[in-house]
Amino acid sequence: MGKSARPREASLADNEAQAIGRLLRTSPRKLNLVAQLIRGKKVQTALAELTFSEKRIARSVKKVLQSAVANAENNHNLDVDALVVKEAFVGKSLVMKRFHARGRGRGARVLKPFSMITIIVHQAEEAA
Questions:
Q1: What is the mean pLDDT of residues 72-98?
Q2: Strand 83-101's sheet: what is its strand order?
Q3: What phi, psi does 41 have (nearest 5°)?
């Protein structure tokens, strides 16, 4: 008794594939800076940007982008060389609340945010 097969989401076209990275340990604001680097670029260029980015979370975003490319190639039979990052958007996830001891018996709240990223790639039409 497993789940029944889910139909392809109506929001994606036939020449698109997506991957979602959940529970990334960074704030959505910082993650969006990395997502801005790759929006609208060819996949090879975006992978190169993420490889040499000095941001810590760029390594996780690169894994999500590689997953989207693998989904496009294996699940939707798209040409990897013609893929372009159509969308890369960021959302909030859970926030861990922690306690930091301060002077005079007081405490300070420490928020440790998590976020998620969705990357959609699509196969660009060849210009003849």
A1: 96
A2: 16-24, 107-123, 83-101
A3: -100, 160
**Residue 86: which of 11, 17, 8 has the closest Cα?**
17
61 inside domain: yes
- Per-residue pLDDT at 128: 45
Q: Do residues 41 and 53 touch, judged by C-beta distance below 8 A?
A: no
In a domain, 4, yes or no: no
**Is 11 part of any domain?**
no
> Please, are residues 93 and 115 in contact by the beta-carbon 8 Å criterion?
yes
The enclosing H or E element of 40 equals none
* Cβ(120)–Cβ(18) below 8 Å: yes
From first CA to last CA, the distance across the chain in angstroms is 49
